[in-house]
Amino acid sequence: MFSSPEVGQLVVVRKRPFVVMEIVPSAISSASDAKATCRLIKLSSVEDDGLGEELEVLWELEPGTSIHEKSTLPEPTSFDDPKRLRAFLDAVRWGAISQSDDRALHSPFRSGIEIDEYQLDPVVRALSMPKVNLLIADDVGLGKTIEAGLVVQELILRHRVRSVLIVCPSSLQLQWRDEMRDKFGLEFRIVDSDGISQLRRKRGIHVNAWSHFPRLITSIDFLKRERPLRSFRETLPAGEEAAYPRPYDLLIVDEAHNVAPSGRGQYATESMRTLAIRALTPHFEHKLFLSATPHNGYRESFAALLELLDNQRFARAMTIPSRVQLEAVMVRRMKSDPPPHFDSSDTQEFRNSSPRVRFVLNRGALFGLRFHSR
Question: According to CATH, what is the number of the domain 102-331?
Fold first, then answer.
């Protein structure tokens, strides 16, 4: 007799921990017992480096599976030392993540990088938005990739984001994949011609590359082609209008100025890159655009880029966007702007930091961490 997993139960499959998301009965019978019916078990990874990764297995045919059975609480025989209990409560409190508390950030403490204080501003801004539409327009060298990684990791930890698509120039695909893996522990897979060929050899010619993994990276010049774009549309719900809830969670566009329409006279001429991003944006709940030079000198082109980011706040006809509305979605710092400095022994008020950022930095001192200013 096979032990039966239940929805929500923790299981170990292929030496990795998963949680059971769904159980689908199957008509296939196992070889060992013709009367036993196999079940298709849909699993979701709970590992830090594979958070959100899904797996489907036939439970009765899968070797080496185990279930963490439910157990009762142990009988109390003695009391813990008060210091040990206090340390346990502090660990629980520091490790707990609440979607309603946007003051306590966890991504800075779970990433393997040294963070400058100003790099916390985008993630704080993102958490304050019910729907993240953010343009990070920091100058070259200020760490836009790190800021984007902090936003992604924080939203994943809070279960606000599961699927992520990064669109960037082809020369930056490997850099994005390596930095997300090495600095944030997030595994991304590249979707290109070679990747699709390898995927079809493993899973068959009818597999859709856009739905095989929750976190993907692709280049804008590959995406704008007819076949990749048509394949992506096959993963969307039927109908021309965007469905709710959105089928995808977060879209990141690196070097976003490359997808902005080129300004010519009084018009903004849309390129194939622009049309590709315009086809994608309605189907993503959150959007994050990165560019050191978002304005190419043409107001019409910049207005069209803002419309791609947030079509509820901006429109192409508004060639001069409101300063208040622009500041609500754009983070802009130059190298000449001195970054705020933090010292755990002498906390100072930061001219460019919000109260939430100051809270996170003071909280970092509790962990014995320092944020370095370069």
Answer: 3.40.50.10810
